Amino acid sequence: MPKRQVFYSFHYANDVFRVQHIRNIGAIEDNKPVSENNWEDVKRKGDEGIKRWINDNMYYRSCVIVLIGAETANRKWVRYEIQKAWEDKKGCWVSIYIT
Predict the structure, then answer these.
(1) Which of 9, 51, 56, 72 has the most CB atoms in a 10 Å sphere around its CB?
(2) 51 Cβ contact list (under 8 Å, min separation 6)
(3) Is residue 68 part of a domain?
(4) Least confident of 46-50, 52-56, 69-73, 76-80
(5) In a domain, 39, yes or no
């Protein structure tokens, strides 16, 4: 059975190091983490640039994994990613609390 194509949703500033450990496992798919420099480039393009990046990266994904940290629920872009996944009827939802 082929692996699911996964989109990871998380609070970048607070949780990126813990998330990279999970993503680097490669158990779900070969999905390379976004570097801090790449994320800074995306943020410089403003809200529309961030939406475009999320939309492009979520397009071929069949499910979303929300990696939950202390402030994840308050993050604008995490909320956008969850809403988009719901609207796009992504087939699988998983939430993982990371500490």
Answers:
(1) 9
(2) 80
(3) yes
(4) 69-73
(5) yes
Domain presence at residue 1: no
> Mean of the per-residue pLDDT values for the chain?
77
- Residue among 67, 75, 63 nearest 96 (CA): 67
Cα 91 from Cα 4, distance rounded (Å):
10
- Beta pairing class for 6-9 and 63-68: parallel
Q: How many CB atoms lie within 10 A of CB 95?
A: 12
The whole-angstrom separation of Cα 86 and Cα 82 is: 6
Number of domains in the chain: 1
The secondary structure of 3-25 as a DSSP string is PPPEEEE--HHHHHHHHHHHHHH
pLDDT at residue 4 in the model: 65
21-36 per-position pLDDT tens digit: 666 665 555 555 556 5
Write out the residue range of the structural domain in which residue 50 sits: 6-97
